[in-house]
Structure formats: structure tokens, C-alpha cells
Amino acid sequence: MDSTYFTAYNTCDMNTQADILAEDIEFYHDQGGLATSKQEILESIEKNICNKVTRVLVEGSFEVHEIKGYGAVALGLHKFNNNHEPDAIPKPSKFIGVWTHQDNKWQMSRIISLH
């Protein structure tokens, strides 16, 4: 699901992103603070990320841990390439995603992004 979400993120597929993000999303960003409006998060991604930034998972860093009866926690390192500065070297940063699994559907309900 991480791959599915970030393929949509990297290609600006807003419909897939909207489907994967839970209605009660909480996005904790160490620099931007807490965001809880799904609509505002999607609008921010469309305005600030689409065609500007590409997320790349750091190979070998990804972990997934089941949360019995709820879903899973995914964590690892990723980098964000600035598409307008191709020579810039991005620094890896940590992420944590809490995924719910209900009615045979996976959704991200909590995101923690640490730079």
C-alpha cells in the first residue's frame, strides 16, 4: 500500500490519494505541525507537491508491523527529490504511517513525517 499511495503521490493521482487517506486523517509534520483536514491535506499536496517533488523510498529501510485487529504500522526512510533542482541531493528523512484495515480496504489514518 505504501507503494500504491506514493505512486499516486508521485504522479499526482489525487483520486487514489483521496481514496487511501482516511476521513479522520492526522498528519504530523515536524516542521508544518498537525493537519487534520483531509481536504486541506489533498489541496496542499496538489498545490505544493504535484510535478514539483518525487518521493523515493530508501532501499532496505522499510518495515511493516501488524497491529492485530486494526491494521499495520509502516516506517522507514524516504527522500524527496526536487524536480526543479535535479542536481540537489536530498537527505533521507523518517516516516511512520498507521494503516487501518476495514471492510477489506486499507487506509492511512495517521502519518508522522520527520525531517
Automatic annotation (TrEMBL):
Domain DUF4440: 2-108
Regions annotated as coiled coil: none
InterPro entries to which the protein is assigned, alphabetical: DUF4440, NTF2-like_dom_sf
Protein name: Nuclear transport factor 2 family protein
